[in-house]
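Technical note accompanying the year-one report. For the benefit of new consortium partners, we illustrate the data format agreed upon in the data management plan: each record pairs a sequence with a structure-token string. No post-processing was applied to the example shown here.
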Amino acid sequence: MLDFLKKKIISTSCNCSIRKNAIFYDTFKYPFSNTKESKVDILILLEFQETEHRTNSLKNAFFSNFKDYTFAVIPALGCTPKNFKLDSDTISMYTQCKKENIKKLIEQYSPKVIITSGRSLYTITESKDLKPYHFFVPIGGALQEYQKDDTWIYSSEFNCKVFSIPPIYQYIDYKGTFKDVYETKFFFEQLNRTKEVLKERKERKSELKLLYEKEPNNLIQSYLNNTNKQIIAIDTETSGLNYFEDELYSIQFSNDGVTGSFCVFQSINKELLNELFSKKDIIFVFHHAQFDLKMLKSNGIYNARCDFDTMLASHSLNENSPNGLKSLTWLYTIYGGYELKLQEYFKKYKIDNFLQAPQQILLEYACMDVIITRQLYDYFVKRFELDDISVKENFYNFVMPAVEMITDIEMTGVQIDFNYLKEYVNKLKQKVNEIENNIYKIAGKSFNLKSSKELTEVLKKIPEFKILKDDKGKELLTKNGDLVLNKEVLERYVKEQDHEFLKQIIEYNHITKEISQFGYSIKKEKKNNKKKLFEVEEEIDNEKGFLASIYNGRLYGGYKLHGTETGRMSGGGGLGSTINWQNMPKTPEFRKIFLAPEGYVIAYSDYDGMEVSIYSQIAGKGPLENVILSGKDPHCYTCISLFKLLENKNISYEEIFSKTKIEGQEDKHFKQMRTNSKTLNFQGLYGATKYGLANSFGVEIEAGEKYLNAFYQSYPEIEKYIKYNRSFAQKNGYVKTLLGRKRRLPELTYIGEDSYKNKDSFFNLGNLMNAALNAPVQGTSGQTTLIAMTNIWKEFKKKNVKTRIIINVHDEIVFELYIPEIQETEKIIKYWMEYPYYKNIAGNEVKLTAGLEYGEIWKYAHSTKYWNEHKEEFEIVKNNINERNQKNLH
């Protein structure tokens, strides 16, 4: 894109409506082709005008590969306005150029196949959700036949397949030389696949039926009367995302992937629909069931269930692909872009609510949603049969059983102590005022603390302040010349220059972020409190933070089963604002906001040293296993090799332990060596290099290599595993967890001499190598916790206990623990947390262990053993909880 933005030559070939205020970059005449015919076999849309050298290389590639076919190359972007912003306006620019000019060109050429480079993909899809890197797949021998479906889309607008190639600058340098990188190999494989498609016969489209059901109960009754096995896709249309307050307007059904039935919810007999969901011989299919199920359940459809979620199936089959229904429609059906009609209506009439659209437009859109969901089910079921058996088992045995559990937890919510919340926020505000005054005192004036420009001016006047530089010696400045002052850079300033002023800025940013996280305003700006949480108007914004996701005194957050590449569940979602449980501050002052109901305590259970234990289980037999089983400190153990290689000293484990862990016997040098060992262990486990360690410890490369050797001498099985893991990832393009879940890393299937320095790529090769090591560990951790949560939840339901799961944070599960059930539920929790869900490698004997602690405040609690020895203290805890609940009632 840099070449695109460097030259400013007004074009005479573009005649679109925004031509008057445009800058156009042109180095050669478009179009070019190998034929004079008006129609071609292949049409190539280039992302933007390229340099002459790159263009010549492309020409040579196209002429040599497509010599038996007719082709033409045209620009997908005709011109660019002066106020054009790459991130925000890219799609709208491609869309507008298409409508003004490019569409006519494409229709003129009437291609049998289209190739798009980089962002020119937007010309076809007009969507921000489908990006060029979504098409990257393993190459060479690692590519499976079924994975070819991930390399193309179908354009119903132009009635042909579309192949996406990476942006040209990623694999052809400014001299026109093809780089020795993955993108180059992928580019040529896409050209070959394009030629293969030209030999195929075109398939006929099915004629879809979009029906408005005047008598929806007759349709539901027909499903009930059908004795054959049925697969029914369901989708809902609502007035918003708040499943307690927004309207559930309609439900759509499709049992064949051809017919979509639109049913107004108010016309549906709820008892009849509940009866339908009770039929065990029907497979119910949703796309993102967590939302639809919450809407259905909160509207009286208590039996609503999902047996197959196409969003989760997509993520299980390829976590690198998009998960949205519209993107998947492009990838795996022939109906991509069906939502554009509704979007254009929204834009034209400036509305943002589905229910404000005419019924016919809403009918078409809603019915297409459910038809596509049903079609995706058919495709994904076949795809599971083609992939490794472990992928299928992971989806059906672990992912789908978690859907109902997560939905229930999201609808349970967490009780909030509003009195304490107000008190806590007021203290934060007082602290903010104190910090502001301190900052202004140091600066000698008041200024806007959120302005990078003003903050830069103040910092530059501070004596001895020096601007930090990057690895290349370039000052860390923005394009405007202001200091780069993000969180990481600010912390680096404090670490390297120890400025009190910047310490205050960091604390100010942290506290103000916490205040806004709740939904409060830092300044005194009165907001209308529609929810009437308090008796008087507060300085809050009900559209943000915690307060936007509170209903009847409880906070409702969300989780994403498709949220991470490793398979770990991530936080996100909520009634009106995103609540990310993974980012909750850990201080007792903050955690006290969450209040157990009367008769309950807040409890949590997490695994002991989970990732280190899993790493040992994956690596097999060796010293790390012995260290864990013997209860030794792994950092003291690594110190043995560190002393030997760095200082040529033979120090025993016992001496190191006594001088670092036993009070009164500590030795400053030994403690520093243990700290270094701790850093070395965590970096070594995830593939540290001698260069990275040299940088971490501030030493020469030779010393960095000694650190690395010390780690591998301590744990030779880790070095063996790392070598095997990397080799496997490069050969197959994926790695696996101990439970069989795949983490796909297709870019590793080709590593050329230019790969590590290919800064134009979408990905960083070093990061991918680290991901190959990290994914099996984090993935196993995330899966284990999710399975344990599901089993605990099922057991609670089976035994009809009052204790409930309310929060998950990585490997930690939080409960509202009913006090009379402590003994019973503790056994359930511990049993399913420690259950061996998988086999260790090579007979490794390390087991995962977990404990349960409970009390008044989340994370600041004690075990049953402690409370049995401090019964009076436990009575105080119960009284505190009861008193706080009574205050919140008033």
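Partners are asked to follow this layout when depositing records. The radius of gyration is 30 Å.
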